[in-house]
Design brief:
By secondary structure, the chain is an all-alpha fold. The chain has four helices and no strands. The protein has one domain: Butyryl-CoA Dehydrogenase, subunit A, domain 3 (Up-down Bundle). The chain starts with a helix and ends with a helix. It holds the Pfam family Acyl-CoA_dh_1. This is Acyl-CoA dehydrogenase family protein. GO terms for molecular function: acyl-CoA dehydrogenase activity. It comes from Escherichia marmotae.
Length: 93
C-alpha cells in the first residue's frame, strides 16, 4: 500500500508542476516558462522511473519478464529520460 501511495503522490506532484508550466506558457509565453519546463522534464522522467521501479518490485520476478508490460515500459521510459538531454542539462537552466 505504501508503494501505491508514494506513486500516487509523486504522480500528482508531477501533474501539478505540468499544469503550472502550461499556465505560465499560456499566460506569459514559453520563454518565461523555461525554468518550469526544465523542471518538469526532470521531475516527470524521474517519477515515471520511480513508479515503474515500485511496480516491478511489487510484481517480483514477473515484473522483470516480458509476461507483463513493465519491463518494456521501463526500457522505453529510460530511453526517454536521455532523449531530450540528461537531467544535469535541465538543472542548469
Amino acid at each position: 500500500q505504501d508503494f501505491i501511495a508514494k506513486s500516487r503522490i509523486e504522480t500528482e506532484q508531477a501533474r501539478l508542476l505540468t499544469l503550472m508550466a502550461a499556465w505560465k506558457m499560456d499566460t506569459y509565453g514559453k520563454k518565461e516558462a523555461r525554468r518550469e519546463i526544465s523542471m518538469i522534464k526532470v521531475v516527470a522522467a524521474n517519477v515515471v522511473m520511480d513508479v515503474l521501479d515500485r511496480a516491478t518490485q511489487g510484481h517480483g520476478s514477473l515484473g522483470m519478464s516480458d509476461d507483463t508490460p513493465l519491463a518494456g515500459m521501463w526500457r522505453f521510459s529510460r530511453m526517454l529520460k536521455v532523449a531530450d538531454g540528461p537531467d544535469e542539462v535541465h538543472k542548469m537552466v
